[in-house]
Amino acid sequence: MNVLLYAIIGLGSGAVYGLLAQGIVAVYRSSGVLNFAQGAIAMAAAYLFVDLRHIVPAPIAVVAVTAGAAAFGVLFHAIVMTPMRRASTLAKVAATLGLFVTLQSAVALRYGTESKMVPGFLPSSPLHLWSGAAVGLDRLILLLIAVVVTLAAWYAYRSTQFGRLTTGVWHDPDAVGALGGSPRLVAGANWAIGSGLAGLCGCLIAPLTGLQTDTLSMLVVPAVAAAIAGGFSSFPGALAAGLAIGAAESVVGNYVSTPGWSKAVPFLGIAILFVARGRSLPVRSEAQQALPAVGRAHFGRTGVAGVVLVLLLAVHLGPASWVGPITATAMAAIVALSVVLVTGYAGQLTLAPLALSGAGALLAANASHAWGWPLVPSLLAGAVLAVPVGLAVALPALRTRGANLAAITLALGVVVNDVAFNNPRWTGGFEGLTTGPLTVLGWSVDANLHPERYADLVLALLLLVGLLMVRVRRGPLGRQLLAVRGNERAAASVGISVGAAKLVAFSLAAFIAGLYGVLTGFQTGVATFTTFDAFSSILLVSTVVLAGVGYSGGAIVAGVMASGGIVSTWLGFSGIADYLPLISGLALMLTLVVQPSGIVPETLETWRHLGAAAARRLPGAEALRNAVAAVRRGAARPHPRPQTSAAPDTGEPAARPAVPGVRAAGLRVEGLSVRFGEVRAVDGLSLAVAPGEILGLIGPNGAGKTTAIDAVTGLVPAAGRVMLGGKVLSGLPPHRRAGSGLGRSFQGIELFEDLTVGENVMVGHEGRRLGGLLLDLLRPARGRLSPAGRAAVELFGLGECSGDKPGEVSFGLRRLAGIARAVSGAPSVLLLDEPAAGLGPGEVQELITLLRRLARDGNMAIILVEHHMEMVMAVCDRVHVMNLGRTLAVGTPEEIERDPAVRAAYLGDADPDAAQEETRDETRPGTVRQ
Ligand SMILES: Nc1ncnc2c1ncn2[C@@H]1O[C@H](COP(=O)(O)OP(=O)(O)OP(=O)(O)O)[C@@H](O)[C@H]1O
């Protein structure tokens, strides 16, 4: 009974979470942006409301603040989000983080960070429940307001033109324009609603929680959790989840006295629920998100060594006052590199990097405190022990992605901070934990006594981590991470274990973050854990995004800009250090508007342009320009061009090689069925294709051809059996099916846009080597094409463009590269999804020749999904016709061409009723021979 009582008491704060979540849902529905500044807007509104109450009555203050917050939302949308509409999701999320940081810092500067009580303005007379307990009337009023607002939102977004336009504006702005709406106005109106609701919440919650910048800003965490539970689309769902969170917090808080758990339990519950609902791979229709630019480790090992050398010289030759800022810069650069690895390279937006650092530091500090470990074993322990924590944070990443992952990791960061870093039993409380001696090989490196030695140690670690990053970026791991970040489905189809790649990235990042945790936590001999909070994590990620999250150089720049680093110390001398977070927040928003990929990539681009312009003007310009072009091409190709076996120039066309390494095996599919809700996309499909045979799979639009290929390759769950040369593949994940000998191309090509054409072909066969990825970091494998990869490059004529990015080559070459990527894995069965789409007649003819060669000389079994009937009839040995997910006919091209049911269903020139009849009759003699 008491549980119910506590739950009812928690409904008041739950109502505020739910209300705040309504605003998050409104913004997300219209622009796909998860507004992490929702809590910060509420916080600023709360302070404003308290000020206004001195001047006007409370109801007028509430209306004024709500309207002001709505106007602020419109302004933010117009000034920041509208210019960024084509930027990556990460950049948009970072912009809201910039707003978060700006508001939080501005309010802290104006009002201070101490807590202040706020008198209530709603009637708070107690309503007596049972067992002598009572709940204030104000909380029930909050609940009522939340329910009314939610019902209004539910109705408006469901049943009005505004709601319909809102739903369309993110996915199809042009359609909104065609319906007479202005996409900008609709999105702006949603920002007004979202921010207005935040303003209202600020006024309502201030009397419950009091005024405190952190507490109020972090209301975004339960609100986002509620929005997640509502699937970012359901207003009632978000309110229900908000109420559940409030109730659970109240119940847990009354039974568990350990700090932090009252917030942790509901968040963890929602995170588990959400992860359980997630998918290991996105569905086909899920739009590819724009991604921030990624570097190619241009400056390589020399660049890393050069940066470290400069910093080392500055430590030893510069004034003593330089040592501290340089040490802070180098430490921040180390943890920033972990962000580059996991967010830049692997594309996983996590907002808890410092939770990993703190966890490593906490575990190492306890060991060091208990057993007197000196610094080096503590560093190793911190790095190693951070890995399991990193893997725990990675678990959501296996089933969620994008802004959802950011939200869950933010919640996890808050939980770890509240439960672990604020727990005096583990942290030594106010006094911290005394660590073992700060020595390396008997030498004291205590930062208090020998700051320059500590700087040397930090710089040595920066060198090691920097070199590791170069190796990651240039090796198979980097290619696989970039493939995963670019397109998880395509990555899985070339044999990459998407989950394992993410886990490797998170583990490595956690290792690096753990090093930073010990370095920063231990430097004075007493470990403290106050700098690993969620806000600091947000600030770190924002700074790295601002600098260039896809670039190792971005991590260095982020280090320079970090708190305590070179820039902040320099600004400190100018007396504006207090304003640094505010300046960072504003700079982040401004930079993202102008340069969404960050400072480093844009600067590199500018240098290139300047270099080229200078080369044009100098005497001997032509020679110099060629030299610059050569350098640029070289820089653009850190890897040697894939080596092809150059044929001697005999004047005759070179004989094209077959694909070596193909294991001849046929494919047999029995009773394959796929359902999407009520739609039976594939309904009991059975087919077989033998080595050396080309089977056409045709049918009208929506017949289920692509779904059938997806089901065979494991990209959608399906019933039925898939066998390759006697081996049952059903139930295996896509990368294992690829490893067993299935290769495929995609209707939408789906190359990895961050990799060159040559690297795309290379990952086509590297995917099978994931188990050895970590080993590759120790003993790097050369970026070489396999014999099958070389054959694919030659066969498809990609030698010339192998160093170009897919976006830089013609459409025809992109198509061929998509097939070559699949061929480079020497698959036994090649499944091609509309390979001729968009090709000219000459290119189609060339493709026909290539396919024949792959089948006849390469001994591959090929399934060809195609609408190009001439090609199908010319190249296929047999043709399998689908309609409405089922087999309509099977036969030779000639038989299929003559089949009246096929003509009716597919070519549309006979009695459609007859076609339906034929669809059901799969055992019809003649053309159907199964
Ligand atoms: N993720 C999905 N969710 C719901 N329905 C889907 C999904 N993917 C495909 N479908 C539906 O399954 C059916 C088969 O689609 P599929 O794309 O496989 O057909 P297709 O024969 O390849 O068509 P096309 O020739 O146009 O590419 C269609 O009705 C389609 O709308």
What would you say this structure looks like, in words?
The chain is of the alpha/beta class. It is 61% helix and 8% strand. It folds into 4 domains: 10-121 and 135-220, no CATH class; 300-597, ABC transporter involved in vitamin B12 uptake, BtuC (Orthogonal Bundle), CATH 1.10.3470; 603-631; 667-772 and 780-893, P-loop containing nucleotide triphosphate hydrolases (Rossmann fold), CATH 3.40.50.300. The chain is globular, with a radius of gyration of 30 Å. The strands form 5 sheets. Strands 12-13-14-9-15-16 form a 6-stranded mixed sheet, with helices on both faces. A 4-stranded antiparallel sheet has the order 8-7-10-11, covered by helices on one side. Helix 2 packs parallel to helix 6 (137-159), helix 14 (300-317) runs antiparallel to helix 20 (451-474) and helix 20 (451-474) packs across helix 21 (476-486). The chain starts with a helix and ends in a 10-residue tail after the last helix. A hairpin with a 2-residue loop joins strand 15 (878-883) and strand 16 (886-891). The protein has 40 helices and 16 strands. Residues 283-285, 676, 679, 681, 699, 701-707, 747 line the site of adenosine-5'-triphosphate.
